[in-house]
Amino acid sequence: MDTLKRFRPNQIISVILFLFSIFYIVLAYQIPGYALPRPVDADLFPKVLGFSMVILSIALFFERDRPVDKESESETEDHLSHETEEKEEKRRETFWEKAETQIVVTAVAIAAYIFLLERAGFVLTTLVFVYGMTWFYGYKGHLANIIVASIIGFGFYFLLTRGLGVYLPPGLLPF
Amino acid sequence: MRHLCKRFIYAAGVSGMSFALLTACGEPPDDPTEENNNEAEAESNADGNQSNDTNEVASDWEPENDVDYIAPADAGGGWDTLIRTTAQVIDEEDLAPVNFAPQNIPGSGGAIGWAEVAGHAGEPQPLFAASPPIILVPLTETSQYDHTDFTPVANLITDYSIVLVQPDSEFESVVDVFEAIEEDPQSVSVGGGSAAGSMDHISMAGAAAEFGVNAADVNYVPFSGGGEAMTNLLGGHVDVVITGVGESTGQVESGELRPIAYSSEEPIEVLADAGAETFIEQGIDYTFDIWRGIMGPPDMPQEAVQYYENMYADMMETSTWEGQVENLGWINNYQNSEEFSEFLDEQFELFEDVLTEIGLVE
Amino acid sequence: MDAFENLLYGFEIALQPEALLFVLIGVVAGTVIGMLPGLGPISALALMIPITYGMDPAIGIILMAGVYYGAIFGGSTSSILLNAPGVAGTVATSFDGYPLAKQGKAGKALAIAAYSSFIGGTVSIVGLMFIAPLLGRVAVSFGPSEYFALMVFGLTAVVSLSEKSLIKGLIAAVFGVMVSLMGMDLQTGTARYTFGNINLLDGIDFLIVALGVFALGEVFVLLKKRSGAAKQNSLGSLKLTKQEVREIAPPIGRSSILGFFTGVLPGAGATIGSFLGYTMEKNIAKDGNTFGKGNIKGVAAPEAANNAASGGSFVPLLTLGVPGSGTTAVLLGALLVMGITPGPLMLEDRPDVFWGVIASMYIGNIFLLILNLPLIPLISKILNVPRAMLLSLIIVFCMIGVYGLSFNPFDLMLVLIFGLIGFAMRMYNFPAAPLILAMILGAIMEENMRRALQISSGDWMIFVDKPISLTLLIMAALSLLIPLVIRVIKFINRKKA
């Protein structure tokens, strides 16, 4: 079962990598040559890398995964996380608690943070981000959360810009 | 760069000693992407207040806000040193009623910093440090802005190119080098501290062309800095190195490397003592200035230009400046806005010619 | 004067109250700066320049040396606790330091880091003191072809870092080199893979990739696995057993020496030193396969090496006057401003600076150790922060750190992208270490290969004509072949048996 599961992603990845390397090689051939003759111009390395990637992606397609169980058992990290998983309460997850949802939301939230950082300013974005994400990840101590978020947002901002003369985007707030 | 202050103070605060350092770091915050005057004003009382009344200025225009003072490169390089040193002298000598707040906007050989300044057309600031790359980089098409997009404020100092060899090298003069190149271009490798097609390369190729060698025959090997190039010469990996006189002081004085030519108009004593002659003395009618000056945004108000060119002229009279110039091995080369502007156009033509000759510009 | 007398003279300078104060400020400030993601020794030193204006040069550089040391040490803390290396030189530390923290042995990992740093630092100072002038000569014998060979040798480590699948390791490495080539080519000024975007012209900063793939990637992995950053409330013991001391002593010794020599080479420095130290120990160790899963030797080796390398990188600066790394370039700038021209003459002209620095390094190192050991429990308090909050804080710290590098939101997007790449890599068992290693070494390898060929006018024999580069290439070949041979021998033996 496990082997089968792992085998498929490998092949999918190898196809993605193959397409990626073709794209990379096409771009490599578009690197303009230097006006002066150079023994090795800027395009050689990219070409070599691109073709290496093609070969490796093909090899990956055919790579037989070694039996999984042996390795994951020896790997402490997996081991540990299994433990924690088991320890965690076994209740039904809502949609928002699913790992996949959390990852997507986190990525989107980071993108929003970046987008808003110079527009809404450091304090607002950071405060909202820290509070919001901490809450979202399941921390329900609202007071502690607000305090920490404020310390990070206001504290950093004032310490840096006021006390130490360092730039952070002020954004919407009037100071 | 100044954003780094915070980390240090934060750190120093931890050790309970922040008071000693706050003054050193307490410059106003700068907005690296847009001007922000409230901020600057709010902060200028941190340490820039004593300088209000001691000015003598020709025009009535005076800067009202702290000046964003940009080195379009990382900390530690030539532009950065110029910006920091002048800011310090201006501050110490109370030459302006406001602070000059140095900041680094590194990237793309300056292009990112230039793009930032170009966004302030018609404003009296920011000011930034400029040198030959502002002409060269646009010529090789990596910046959409060139020197004509900015307002020259004042040219301040200059450095010259210097050609170095190992002490026991067979090359006694730069003429020997060019003759060897003429005979077999492959036989002589010339290291320099910047990319192909940029300052050091142009300087050497220009001299070669003037001598009568095909400029494209100079086998130029780019290193990431004059220091690295000189290390490679010390180790015998390249035959000749071209770099700035300032950068080579240590090696020349200790006799570890032997200068064989330099690009100034007049002989320089230290180098003459070390046995080197200018290109001109060796019969090659060629000079090359590694100038460094201050420029401002496009269409800078005339009165602001006037104010700053006078301020820099005053600055260069001070003893604080003299001391720094001596420490850093600089050579004063003041030009006001107009002279600087003409000089830049001449430089542009020179560089374009050389680059065309090498084959880098069509 | 012999070295000993000189050193006494140096201590006379370094033990002045003023010098002591600034060493202290320096190491503390450096440590804290190093802990913050995105800020490393370069930033820390650049910050010091305005502060040292007008200072006595000897004191000024003493301050800077302290900061330099502190920053490299500080980076190990966040590497170990959060998998978020604050400094490039401590990326290798996170390979085993973070797994140790996860196993509840954060205190032990931090203590090992502190001891190893101390020893590595001390070894390098001794080296700096006695053989600096000689080494300057050795350093210059490394030209482009030698560097190329050294990088090839370094890259062979990809094989041993590849863990389960060699193919996946190689893919990660090739991808790492691809990333490192982005931006303007130094040799010709040609833009490669910048897609016309000016923000990419300077390439992608190493720390953006490291923070993305390690710190942010780890956040995603933790979300996926629903586990916390490390065992809650578990600092574990700081004490090392005799057995453990015996275990880590040889790696520390070897890596210190290796690190020092790596640091001496211009252009190599702490990051490469730490990687070389790590891979060397992994290859030597009998339990090499537990590297990356929380082996204490995997913390000791890179920590000793990176501190030794930072000491070593003073050699070309102080003896030749040429900076061997970005960090020492900033230092050189600062010295020039203070009116000192480093170089062979400096020993005669300003012995106070030269010997003062060396003596202050000893003192700084001792300060680092005695300051940081008691601080470990305090620092580790960060592990008591609830998981939900810690995750969001790690993200924000990554953002602040990278924003402080360039003030460019574009770079923040890159961190996010590399975070997702790092997550995908972890999910599908692609090792991250080869990517990082290849990213550091790949670009230097290409640059020097092309430089060498430029010098030789395209004659590839330049790489084998020179003894040092030939030796290194043979070593590279051996390090690839020996494991293979061993495997074959084992295979045959097994068949026989």
From TrEMBL, chain B:
Compositional bias, Polar residues, is annotated for: 48-57
Ranges annotated as biased composition (Acidic residues)? 28-44
The family database entries (InterPro entries) matched by this protein are listed as: BUG (IPR005064), Bug_dom1 (IPR042100)
Q: What family does the entry list? A: Belongs to the UPF0065 (bug) family.
Residues of the region (Disordered) are: 25-65
What protein name is recorded for this chain?
Answer: Tricarboxylic transporter
Which region is the signal sequence? Answer: 1-20
Q: Respond yes or no to whether keyword Signal is given for this record.
A: yes
Spell out the Pfam families in the cross-references.
Answer: TctC
Query: What are the leading ranks of the lineage?
Result: Bacteria, Bacillati, Bacillota, Bacilli, Bacillales
Q: Which UniProt keywords apply?
A: Signal
From TrEMBL, chain C:
Q: What is this protein called?
A: Transporter
Q: Where is the DUF112 domain?
A: 20-437
Q: Where are the transmembrane segments?
A: 20-39, 51-74, 110-132, 138-159, 166-184, 204-223, 317-341, 353-376, 388-406, 412-445, 470-489
The lineage's top-level taxon is Bacteria
Q: Which InterPro entries match?
A: DUF112_TM
Record-linked PANTHER family = TRICARBOXYLIC TRANSPORT PROTEIN
Query: Keyword annotations for this protein?
Result: Membrane, Transmembrane, Transmembrane helix
Say yes or no: keyword Membrane present: yes
Keyword Transmembrane helix listed: yes
